[in-house]
Amino acid sequence: MFVFFFCRAELTNNLGFQSSLSITSKDVNDKPYNPFDHRKLEHPNSTIGSIVHLLKACLGSGILAMPAAFKNSGLVAGAIGTLMAGFICTHTVHILVKTSQEVCVDAKKPSMSFADTCGAAFTYGPKRVQNWGGAMKKITDVSMTLAYLGVLCVYVVFIASSFKEVLDPIFPDNIYSIQLYCLFTLIPLVLICQIRNLKYLVPFSAIANALILVVFVITLYYVFLDLPSPSEREMVASITQWPLFLSTVIFAMEGIGVVMPVENEMANPKRFLGCPGVLNVAMVIVISLYGIVGFFGYIQYGDLVKGSITLNLPEDAIFAQTAKLLMALCIFFTYALQFYVPMEMVTRYLEKNGAPSCNNLIQIGIRTGIVLFTVGIAAAFPNLELVISLVGAVFFSTLGLLIPAIVDTVYHWDKDLGPLNYVLYKNILIGLISVIALVSGAYVSIEGMIEDFSGSHHSEHDVHDNATLT
């Protein structure tokens, strides 16, 4: 969904680059403005480096949820659905970047962020919507912030679930609830999120990047160990479960928040799109890996597969338990890095309204409040599979599918919608898919959360009643 560790948090905060080059009237009159010629980058990324950034953005914790996605679709439907979802996600990124490059020409700016692109598409679009540019930029900004708050909730559940899986077998006489494990994460997360300079998190990022490779190797070993026959698994699951599949895949694949920063930092931005291009190469690798992990992970664990496949690793194997702890540690560091996305919006708001004398206390209070909020939500709804599905359905279907389709349509409305207006109809189809994923995925996820909440509530009453009868 999401550069997985340091790169993702750092790049998401990079809102573009301002050019200090002056443009003479001769340049303007003689040839169109070329934003690529006016980018001043101290450390531009090579084509290979940009591919690596995109891979790190998409190959995060989401890939571990793919077997659970296949559980909700079946092997055949999951394989086909993953390819289709990957194609659509790649296409929406393509149209977003293409629109951004075009509005940069209109605005005579060297580069733009995701939110800037959405606002500028309206500003330089049809006259009827030009006044909506500022509002669209704010909507995108807020949506991005809310999306990453949802991601932080997922991370809390992931950390808590991982520690519970490891500690429960070790201390069978002291088994705590998942809610309590969520609360145990509070103080460590509050402390690490008080770090305000990303450079101090670089060592943690480097450690996390190394550990994630170890976790993947261990996980894949157990996935392919004594693999059952595919005939033992469902080929096509009930259609009522498909919304969970779609929203989980969207959550896993979407790295929309880092796409523009990666393109903005390229030494040769023309190589981002096209064939093969940075985007296409990276997404082919991502879709292939997601399909492989999801397909074989579901074959191995079937309907018992959990929200993260690492939670299915055997409890009596030291390497498997180590992988769970390492993954929890990776997600812990990643939480601190992703935390910078919502805080970036808060910081800009504070700076815009002036920095009061108690700004330091305000920062501490806001950072603590955000952590409290995410931990509280995670403790209330600790089903990792359902939380991932809900975040994917509500936030990433909107950011990754709906908004790019709207922006592309609005900007090209008076310009070029292609032969027979195919751009319009294609974007309407993408918008419908987004709305279907949002509504159905959110409904099924929330329904499951309510059932889980009611079940745990009744269980507590049963325990209390039994104790009273005793």
Report on this structure:
The protein is mostly helical. The chain has one domain: Amino acid/polyamine transporter I. 70% of the residues lie in helices and 0% in strands. The chain is built from 18 helices and no strands. It has helices spanning 6-13, 25-30, 47-58, 66-71, 75-107, 114-123, 133-170, 178-184, 186-192, 202-223, 242-253, 256-264, 277-301, 318-338, 340-352, 359-380, 384-412, 422-469. Residues 1-28 and 460-470 have low confidence and may be disordered.
Secondary-structure map:
Layout: H1 6-13, H2 25-30, H3 47-58, H4 66-71, H5 75-107, H6 114-123, H7 133-170, H8 178-184, H9 186-192, H10 202-223, H11 242-253, H12 256-264, H13 277-301, H14 318-338, H15 340-352, H16 359-380, H17 384-412, H18 422-469
Helix pairs in contact: 1-12, 3-12, 3-13, 5-6, 5-11, 5-13, 5-17, 6-7, 6-17, 7-8, 7-14, 7-15, 7-16, 7-17, 8-16, 10-14, 11-17, 11-18, 15-16, 17-18
